Write a sequence for this structure.
């Protein structure tokens, strides 16, 4: 067997042998296929990158047909059960799990960078009382790049490491500040004696006048597991934004602000918010058949269903469903759960969803947990952005180290006017 693809161009009768590597051909190898010497050469056309690999990556593996997700080779189920989020963040960024000393040092360095400059606090204070926290988060991450001139030294390993500590360390602080602003509550400074998720919950919920607030350990643990599940997901829209902006050699704060903006959209990180809104709108189990009918008539999407790569149950959704039980045991059952379960049951037995391989994704149940934990809906995508920062940074570093990468710049097929001239175009 030869690892090549023979392509016959019927326009010219010529045949080309294109090398195959990793079940792929290089799009640039198509360029030699021309009808004449002056021809630009053939391109591949792939709107929304349905079948185009933009990089080689050793970080996250997904088999969408089988419903498999692994970080650096470890199944997500094992990581969710046995590792803390910060261990997983280390794994994503360094390629291996930390030993005890490495982990202590890593945690220390991240914790050391949880504070933000007082001017960032002032910046956040200037937002309107009802500003969406994602808009505030995007702005704050971008603004932070101006506080550290060294962020531009992206090819200096020590500088990169420092920016990684800063970005992972400050995400919960920025997120909690954005929330407290929307509540008109005084900001709570980070407490470096607390674990990552526990510290975040404390900054979110500690009443200003109380000194003895203690986050519920079951809820801290549940949030930490949710952070593990959301840490990376290979070349999704926000990661592609991180890599795309990073490929211009922009600093990591600016690139991460762009990635956060991509995550804001309702088809990506905004979906968990949309799921809860949809369930609230449905209101009761008996309305489920009507919603399914509307979805099948393409009048609406079933939010929290479907995925670009999973054609099977999203493995993260299974774990989230399990965490939901633990959380509801503390918070009381979210009344929307019954509607969600009914929706899932009806959808999974309906030919429309079966034939299109539409299964619940990670967002279908995560919003219900967040709601039960007292998070307002606006903050849901922020809860996704906090842990995804480690994945974005791992991917960004990998991109910078990849000698094949250049500034990210797709081609287009031009469909506009041929050349025309102002003199021959009537103007009103
Ligand atoms: N509800 C109803 N129909 C759907 C849904 C859905 N949620 N998702 C896909 N479909 C249908 C499409 O209409 C399409 O039908 P067609 O073949 O008749 O045209 C078919 O299934 C294939 O779907 P595509 O839109 O081609 O799938 P794509 O890979 O482009 O989109 C996406 C994936 C954006 C996630 C989509 O499934 C969707 O919009 N889901 C709802 C939003 C959501 O839950 N997003 C979270 C994603 S997970 C994450 O970001 C963490």
């Amino acid at each position: 067997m030869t690892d090549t693809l023979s392509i016959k161009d019927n326009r010219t009768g010529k045949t080309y042998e294109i090398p195959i590597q990793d079940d792929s051909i290089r799009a640039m190898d198509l360029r030699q296929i021309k009808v004449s010497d002056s021809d630009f050469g053939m391109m591949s056309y792939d709107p929304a990158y349905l079948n185009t690999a933009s990089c080689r990556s050793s970080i996250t593996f997904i088999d969408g047909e089988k419903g498999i997700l692994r970080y650096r080779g470890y199944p997500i189920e094992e990581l969710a059960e046995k590792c803390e989020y910060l261990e997983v963040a280390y794994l994503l960024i360094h390629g291996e799990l930390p030993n005890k000393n490495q982990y202590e040092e890593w945690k220390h360095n991240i914790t050391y960078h949880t504070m933000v400059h007082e001017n960032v606090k002032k910046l956040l204070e200037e937002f309107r009382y009802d500003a969406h926290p994602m808009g505030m988060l995007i702005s704050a991450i971008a603004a932070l790049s101006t506080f550290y001139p060294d962020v531009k030294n992206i090819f200096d390993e020590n500088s990169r490491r420092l920016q990684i500590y800063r970005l992972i360390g400050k995400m919960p602080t920025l997120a909690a500040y954005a929330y407290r602003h929307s509540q008109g509550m005084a900001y709570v400074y980070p407490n470096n004696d607390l674990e990552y998720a526990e510290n975040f919950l404390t900054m979110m919920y500690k009443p200003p006048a109380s000194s003895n607030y203690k986050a519920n350990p079951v809820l801290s643990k549940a949030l930490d597991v949710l952070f593990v599940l959301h840490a990376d997901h290979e070349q999704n829209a926000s990661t592609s934004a991180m890599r795309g902006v990073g490929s211009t050699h922009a600093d990591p704060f600016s690139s991460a602000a762009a990635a956060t903006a991509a995550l804001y959209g309702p088809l990506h990180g905004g979906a968990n918010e949309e799921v809860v809104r949809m369930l609230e709108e449905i209101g009761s189990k008996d309305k489920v058949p009507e919603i399914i009918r509307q979805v099948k008539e393409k009048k609406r999407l079933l939010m929290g269903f479907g995925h670009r790569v999973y054609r099977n149950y999203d493995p993260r959704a299974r774990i989230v469903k399990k965490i939901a039980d633990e959380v509801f045991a503390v918070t009381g059952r979210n009344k929307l759960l019954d509607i969600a379960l009914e929706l899932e049951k009806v959808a999974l037995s309906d030919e429309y969803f079966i034939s299109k391989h539409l299964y619940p994704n990670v967002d279908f149940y995560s919003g219900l947990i967040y709601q039960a934990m007292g998070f307002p809906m606006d903050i849901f995508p922020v809860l996704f952005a906090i842990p995804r920062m480690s994945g974005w940074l791992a991917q960004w570093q990998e991109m910078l180290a990849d000698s094949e990468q250049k500034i990210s710049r797709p081609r287009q097929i031009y469909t506009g006017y041929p050349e025309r001239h102002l003199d021959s175009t009537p103007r009103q």
Residues 267-268, 271, 295, 301-308, 356, 358, 361-363 surround acetyl coenzyme *A (CB under 6 Å). The longest helix spans residues 157-183. The mean pLDDT is 95.
